[in-house]
Design brief:
Two copies of one chain form a homodimer. Chain A is α/β, with parallel strands linked by helices. Helices cover 30% and strands 21% of the residues of chain A. The interface between A and B is medium-sized, with 21 and 21 residues.
């Protein structure tokens, strides 16, 4: 069997407030083209189809379109599971009908034990689940962690192994030894959420979702695909794309294919003057997401406002060498006791962000200060 | 063609805070039994499948189960549309797959113009829509009301009429001359939302949803099915059920079939003492929803608390003859100016409801009074 392995689409996700639906459609179009060009037997999506349990109407519309195109128009078999970001019950709507056209969407633990056979390959689609689901399914009170649960789950799955076939597990968890980045939601604390690799050794390939970095785990046959897009600043150096996997009982061959983003995350380093210079900014693609690293140390009035006029998609501004204490502008110059809490907060905000409070922000600040003062009075 | 006509399921709706999911499943089971017994060719559901655009996970789970049973297990064709309570985009998830098993779920205006043919009948499934959808579809700026929109929509539908066949319209709106009750959401004001019956005369049957009273409109071939359950106190005298319709080009025969509720809405009239008497309350089915009409006029301490101990599902208590001014208990006895606003409000609440404030209610009251006082101070 030859398949495409992707995961963590997070449809509807925003990056620092920027809507990514167009970027997600742009990546999707490359995935579908690649699947056709590589003549795969199907597409594996290893969880986190949506970014939230109740996705926005826009996100639902975009995802519905994608799946219609993938499965009904291009007739590509789809093997998908729900991830920790999805609501399994909401996502399962339509599931029993999808099968008619080889779109398998597993959202419940017990569905993992019904393998789907494609040629000489058995696919086991194990959705994200909580230990309690396994505790109830196996009627065993000792199952309190994902590690323990996976002992039972993999044993149960192996009962359905047919010999002479390749065995593929599709799942969504944190595999031992992987490296996390910022944009993955932590499942639990204290390592209870970690699945040891030894439990996964009997599969010919494990198609994982959850971590957004394809290199989070380096193992021949246990792989994260990573997300098709960069979903946080901390992912800016990661290579994004999908795996094309050729699997048989004897061998497993992997090839990574990059996805070109609609808008890249770029780092811009320089002085404010350099970055605001027309010759410079006209030489680069300004629709990209910019992470700006200013080398100046002086206070720059209205800095964000001016930068945003030039760079519409700024993710953040960092002062590489910190900021100098420009005595004139700073609050310590005046007697702080003479300032009202509102005025003091306003000045602090402006010094830290180099932006003025919007009227909405000023209102929030006012309300918060009022509420603190009342509590003080109430004592 | 022989079909069952129902509408306004409002899965997830609550009645005065009481969860109705079990009542809705109970009604659904009768609908499915009736459909089988009457050997219908399909089930029409004329909108408002859910009660809210974002239904709860429980509601989604129950509705998914129902539709699986109806269409996949019992193999009944389903002809459904979205209503004003549904989110058309959320509801359309899975739609293109549903057709494979004769489950037609129309959520967009333009889908009304693709008739579904069953034997000698053409079904036109017209979902609830806003005038702007018709204005854009017909590219005509004069379409500002549902009445105007329906002129265009019915003309467009009629272009697809095949002669020699019966023509059925499934839709969800307020038809001229209908009588509204409390639990239907008003669409617009000033009659702009009303569809004249003349526009509907060319259909052999119009299966409507939106109004919960099957008798809201008395017309041979234009009918509301009403909701399968009573969804408000004002619906307590309505007969609830579904239509079984036999339709051909020559004739249209209707038969109404009642649905037995799991919990009926009952009116109980008497004195507090009578209603609290064991011989009385043990003679009736106390799981029903009770609307209690007290004939006493005196103040009864802890009345609601005592009544709820006997009747778990109280929708409301009415004092048929009002209440006497029991001078001892009432606020006018004391000098109101001596009471704090909080104390005054607390006494007023207790006199009106015959219940004490809960600690949560007292907290809300306190916060509201605080906020009023601050605004006063701010002037």
């Amino acid at each position: 069997m030859r398949f495409l392995h992707t995961a963590d689409w997070h449809i509807g996700k925003k990056l620092h407030g920027y809507n990514l639906l167009e970027d997600q459609l742009h990546a999707f179009n490359q995935i579908i083209q690649l699947a056709k060009k590589e003549a795969v037997d199907g597409i594996i999506i290893a969880g986190d189809l949506y970014d939230r349990s109740v996705p926005s109407v826009d996100a639902v519309e975009v995802f519905n379109q994608m799946i219609i195109e993938l499965n009904l128009e291009e007739k590509l078999p789809v093997f998908a599971i729900s991830g920790n970001h999805d609501s399994s019950i909401r996502l399962e709507t339509g599931g029993p009908w999808f099968k008619q056209s080889d779109f398998y969407l597993h959202t419940r633990l017990e569905q993992a034990f019904q393998p789907i056979e494609v040629g000489d390959t058995q696919l086991f689609l194990l959705p994200y689940f909580e230990p309690i689901a396994a505790r109830l399914y196996f009627e065993n009170d000792e199952i309190r962690t994902i590690e323990k649960a996976m002992e039972f789950v993999t044993a149960e799955i192996k009962k359905n192994f047919k010999s002479g076939m390749a065995h593929v597990l599709v799942s969504h968890f944190f595999a031992a030894g992987s490296a996390k980045s910022d944009s993955e939601t932590k499942l639990t604390v204290g390592g209870l959420d970690t699945v040891p690799l030894d439990l996964l050794r009997d599969f010919d390939y494990v198609a994982l979702g959850h971590l957004h970095n394809k290199d989070a785990l380096i193992s021949d046959q246990i792989r994260y695909s990573g997300s098709p897009l960069k979903f946080s600043l901390s992912e800016r150096k990661q290579e994004k794309g999908v795996w094309i996997v050729d699997i048989s009982e004897q061998s497993c061959q992997l090839e990574f294919h990059r996805i070109q983003p609609l808008r890249e995350i770029k780092e811009l380093q320089g002085t404010f003057q350099e970055l605001a210079k027309q010759e410079f900014y006209e030489s680069i693609d300004r629709k990209d997401f910019m992470f700006i690293q200013l080398t100046d140390r002086s206070v720059i009035p209205n800095m964000m406002y001016q930068l945003r006029k030039v760079y519409p998609n700024i993710l953040g501004v960092e002062r590489v060498y910190g900021r100098e204490n420009d005595q004139k502008g700073l609050t310590k110059d005046v007697n702080m006791k003479q300032l009202s809490p509102l005025e003091l907060s306003r000045q602090f905000f402006e010094e830290m962000t180099e932006e003025e409070l919007t009227s909405q922000q000023e209102q929030w600040l006012n309300e918060s200060l009022d509420s603190v003062q009342q509590k003080e009075r109430g004592k």
